[in-house]
Amino acid sequence: MTPPPLDDASVAQLVKDAAAAPSMHNAQPWRFRYSRGSGTFRLYADFERTMTHSDPQGRALHLGCGAALFNLRVAVANAGLHPEVALLPDASDASLLATVRTTAPGDEQDTELGLLHPAISERHTSRYPFAETDIPEDLRSALVDAAHREGATLAFPSAWHLRWVQELAEEAEARNLTDDGSGEDLARWTRTGPGEAGTAPDGVPDYAFGPRKHGGRAPVRDFSGGKPAAGLGATPFESNPHLAVLTTAEDGPRDWLVAGQAMERVLLLATAKGLASSFSTQALEWPDLRWPLRDPVTGTGQAQMILRLGYGPKGPVTHRRPVGDVLGFEP
Predict the structure, then answer these.
(1) CA 9, CA 183: separation in Å to the nearest integer?
(2) Most CB within 10 Å of its CB: which of 11, 22, 228, 269?
(3) Which of the four pLDDT bands, split at 50, 70 and 90, describes residue 230?
């Protein structure tokens, strides 16, 4: 039996949950439309929010939209409905990334999705030092399984492979600090000062930059671009960070959407289990540095994201655009 269409307030709440997803520099590169007649959401890419220099192909944009899609699936399941998803349903419209039709309640998989719902509002990027505490092996295995269930692979590098990932991230961060294009992207999407940082609906506000790294091997981005910034301070980060590399077999728009959903499933589960998280995207922004992130044994897999996980302070809440700015309705 087909359930009745959702009322507008319920649709708005579902999209609010979807839009709590992370995206590169908090650009929030998504738009939604809801068809009242068919009970279907359409997710569109907002290509005006692409990082021109750091993400010219839109790979990171698709990951962010994939994360928003996963949040929508979780929210729909939490509402007692089944999210029926189709990726890239219209070959003639590259901006239409997915449709989600709400149908009658599903099975145990929907129940498991719904259980992740509380983590949507709890997950915030934490750019602070984490404790040098090991992540239990059973939790690592659960995170690996979460990515696998969405069609991606999550691996925790160790020993020389971990050092190699760290070195690639450090090289990329050094390049970004002297690269005009990367600086332009940062300037466009960072918000500084009590007025802009407190009210801007998108971008990374200065209160969420985190401290500057002074020692340690955790790969963190200096969102000030190396420029003087009041109140940032400097502190040692962890010497042995827990990094996880998310990969897919192929490397096109569909794979990027798969990766974004897998990434968010991992992040929500990690949040529910008490882990803090952040991202290391610097090496992924340089093709010659992204390529060596492939599996060192098989030489396969396309690196889509490097996650930094651990026990530490939660990140602050960053703003999201008003739902009315990203949601439209149609008959």
Answers:
(1) 40
(2) 22
(3) low
